[in-house]
Write a structure and sequence with these properties.
By secondary structure, the chain is an alpha+beta fold. The protein has one domain: Alpha-Beta Plaits (2-Layer Sandwich). 31% of the residues lie in helices and 22% in strands. It has 4 helices and 8 strands; from the N terminus they run αβββαββββαβα. The strands form 3 sheets. It has a 4-stranded antiparallel sheet with strand order 4-5-1-8, sandwiched between helices. A two-stranded antiparallel sheet has the order 2-3. β2 and β3 form a beta hairpin. The radius of gyration is 19 Å and the shape is globular.
């Protein structure tokens, strides 16, 4: 018998954590954090306040660095692969929006690239590569998923904010044990 739980909007209605009405294909700077499922330590370890990547962590780093080859309108800024999460500053540059042809309603060029599309692609590619590593290279197994379902982002709106976030990313290995993502 299949257990069909009655719909309860308090527990069955996922709410978006994105800024309502904001166009995430808009050029700008975004602070991104994505965490491993159950905060599992899959990508290396902190030794003497320095992040030492294992092969899986090196793969995550390589996949991040490869993103501009797939998305021509992005720039990568500060980033760090941590044992159980990933921080980065991503920039969507000019040319990110859809160009409209002279005939109204007929799109021309590429569709806009959104932060969600980029992060989703990154998580998907790294998951496939991680599964291959588990099967073929004896990488640490994981429980169901490599990454948590969602990711956190903040729109960087000022130079001061950019400087603070960059500093946070750089210092993250030294502060990891005090970090809320440490488990």
């Amino acid at each position: 018998m299949i257990n069909k739980t009655k719909y309860n909007p308090l527990i069955h209605n996922r709410q978006s954590i994105r800024l309502k009405g904001y166009d995430y294909s808009k050029e700008g700077l975004y602070f991104i954090t994505t965490c491993c499922q159950e905060r599992a330590h899959l990508f290396g370890e902190i030794i003497s306040d320095e992040m030492i990547l294992n092969d899986a962590g090196k793969m995550v780093e390589a996949e991040w660095l490869a993103l501009p080859n797939r998305y021509k309108n992005i720039k990568l800024h500060e980033f760090i692969v941590m044992p159980n999460h990933f921080h980065s500053i991503l920039e969507i540059t000019e040319g990110a929006t859809l160009v409209v042809a002279p005939i109204e309603g007929q799109p021309q060029g590429i569709a806009p690239t959104t932060v969600g599309e980029i992060v989703g692609s990154f998580k998907s590619k790294t998951t496939v590569e991680y599964i291959n590593g588990v099967k073929n290279l004896n990488w640490k197994t994981f429980n169901g998923k490599v990454w948590q379902r969602n990711y956190h982002e903040s729109i960087i709106r000022s130079e001061n904010s950019y400087i603070n976030i960059s500093s946070y990313i750089i210092k993250n290995p030294a502060n990891f044990k005090e970090d809320k993502l440490f488990k």
